[in-house]
Amino acid sequence: MSKDKALLRRMDSSIDTKLSFTYEDVEQIASHILDRVKCRPKLGIICGSGLGKLADLVQEREVIPYTEIPGFPSSTVPGHEGKLVFGKLSGKSVVLMQGRAHCYEGYSPQKTTLAVRTMKMMGINTLFVTNAAGGINRNYNVGDIMVIKDHVNLAGFAGVNPLVGVNDERFGPRFPAMSRAYDLDLRKLALNTAKEMGFGEFVREGVYSMMVGPNFETVTECRFLNQIGIDATGMSTVPEVLVAIHCGMRVFGMSLITNKVIMEYDAEDVANHEEVLQTGDRRSTDLQQLMTQIVDKVEL
Ligand SMILES: O=P(O)(O)O[C@H]1O[C@H](CO)[C@@H](O)[C@H]1O
Ligand SMILES: Nc1nc2[nH]cnc2c(=O)[nH]1
């Protein structure tokens, strides 16, 4: 055998397809789920840390734990139950993800977002994402709700992006635009609804950023985020939104500001997940009310 042939044989020049779930894989997962439920929703809602109580308001519930869905990552973080909850919210058919997967749990960005493509394959065309986030904007208070108008994919700067890998055009284009990721009409609907409900004082609109985590940010990282125009930061949501936009879904997002990030080098406070969950608990009723009103008004 020539030297060149031996080298070619030794070096695998193919793309690592193990990264991704194929279109056929996702089809199978979606039909596995649909075989188990009667509900046929067009709206999907992802509940962030401590925000899963929204599922308590769902009627005619049909529940599937993630552990019973092939390929689905199981939830390993407190505040994320790890269940798909189908049923009616404000009279509309919905599916709620009670808990999400995060890259910091050790899941690939592709696995972290598998549920989003699965939802699309199940007929869902509108995705609402929620999260718990640290307030970077100094005018924000703990307990504020931020309608997301844009994001900065800081994790993407380091190569963490679920759209990396073989692109199957049946999911979406190789180079998806991301300049209108958060639907303008839905943002307006949410802000107007908040005003009507008397929530205007604590519902804002701002920019979310995602770093992989699991550590909370250093003081200098927070100062940097503040300088580049970030209002709130977390460890999720962005990969889900990238995948949702890639596969043609309409996206709306809200962050609950669960803590103010530390920006003083001599501060004694430190960020912690317990505070995140406690704020989620305290504000969950308002967030649930706002969400149910938006669901009531949204056209699907
Ligand atoms: O983004 P969600 O899942 O709401 O949770 C946020 O809260 C957790 C940290 O307290 C992290 O998982 C962060 O991403
Ligand atoms: N990265 C990050 N995620 C959070 N989730 C809730 N609070 C925070 C925070 O301060 N930083």
TrEMBL record:
At which positions is phosphate bound? 49, 80, 100-102, 132, 236
Question: SUPFAM superfamilies from the entry?
Answer: Purine and uridine phosphorylases
InterPro entries per record: Nucleoside_phosphorylase_d, Nucleoside_phosphorylase_sf, Pur_Nuc_Pase_Ino/Guo-sp, Purine_phosphorylase
Record-listed E.C. numbers: 2.4.2.1
Q: Cite the GO molecular-function annotations of the record.
A: purine-nucleoside phosphorylase activity
Q: Which family does it belong to?
A: Belongs to the PNP/MTAP phosphorylase family.
Q: What is this protein called?
A: Purine nucleoside phosphorylase
**What organism is recorded for this protein?**
Candidula unifasciata
* The organism's taxonomic lineage, starting at the top: Eukaryota, Metazoa, Spiralia, Lophotrochozoa, Mollusca
